Amino acid sequence: MRDGLSADVIDIWIWNLEEASASQLPNLARTLTARELDAAARFVHERDRRRYVAGRSGLRQIVGSYLGIEPKRLNLSYNAYGKPRIAASNGSMLHFNLSHCGGMAALAVSSCYQVGIDIEVVRPLKEGNVSRFLSPKEQMTLTALPAGEYRRAFYSVWTRKEAFVKAIGVGLSFPLDAFDVTVGDGLPPRLERLDADGNRPADWSLFDLQIPSPFVGTLAALTGGRPVSLNYRDENAQFFMSSAHPERNDWPPHQNDGNQAGLS
Ligand SMILES: CC(C)(COP(=O)(O)OP(=O)(O)OC[C@H]1O[C@@H](n2cnc3c(N)ncnc32)[C@H](O)[C@@H]1OP(=O)(O)O)[C@@H](O)C(=O)NCCC(=O)NCCS
């Protein structure tokens, strides 16, 4: 691995997906595969397409940099629920997970532990809409909080739950009432109960992410209870913009490019 990452540290990368200018996007798109360009082409709204390209390119550049692999040559494979991982052909066990929301992206990278990450924007909630996302215990604890804390606490719980199901890799197909996480700022993020997984709650480590308001976020890692710390990488969006073939400046990519898949 070119950029060493020790087992007891999980790197966190957070970047703004809106910082890529229209003129930089073609360079970012050069780092994507045909499948990813095809996915980008299917977005109805240009803003969503840009965000997707900036997110995927960032993922490829960052993960590729750990392995010394050119972003576009990073081979990803997917489990049955769509979780990407590094394909066996790249011969690495590096773990990573991406989340994007409201124009921000967060990526967790670990040399050792299965990870899941989730970020959300704290938005107004629709009355009665939250119960299907939470376990009965979480709902009860949330409802008992002062009204002014409710909304942020809900999103915080939600990212704890989603980071966990993303770490497992099955996403929202995992029954959300089969586990409890801690609720509210008074308690550290933690799994309190876990019914439907081979691991014990104590095998999982949860961390609240340091991310600017109005975002909240959680990292979940299957650490087996071993101590780990988060390392926030401060190479920001410029890292992505400068390293993605700056000499190329055409968007969408030409039809005869190897990685082209119908962007028009
Ligand atoms: C994974 C899931 C929870 C993501 O929810 P979200 O809040 O909309 O998205 P986030 O921004 O946090 O995460 C998206 C990223 O997580 C990763 N991801 C995708 N599926 C994943 C999964 N099952 N587990 C973990 N990570 C996953 C991808 O990198 C994705 O990025 P992309 O959208 O650029 O491809 C949700 O999409 C889900 O439950 N998926 C499973 C769907 C399923 O069961 N599919 C079966 C048939 S494919």
Automatic annotation (TrEMBL):
GO function terms (MF aspect): holo-[acyl-carrier-protein] synthase activity; magnesium ion binding
Q: Which UniProt keywords apply?
A: Transferase
- 4'-phosphopantetheinyl transferase N-terminal domain span: 21-110
Task: Note the InterPro entries from the entry.
Answer: 4-PPantetheinyl_Trfase_dom, 4-PPantetheinyl_Trfase_dom_sf, AASDHPPT_N, P-Pant_transferase_sf
> What segment(s) does the record annotate as region Disordered?
244-264
Answer yes or no on keyword Transferase: yes
Describe the family membership recorded for this protein in Swiss-Prot or TrEMBL.
Belongs to the P-Pant transferase superfamily. Gsp/Sfp/HetI/AcpT family.
Q: Can you say what this protein is called?
A: 4'-phosphopantetheinyl transferase
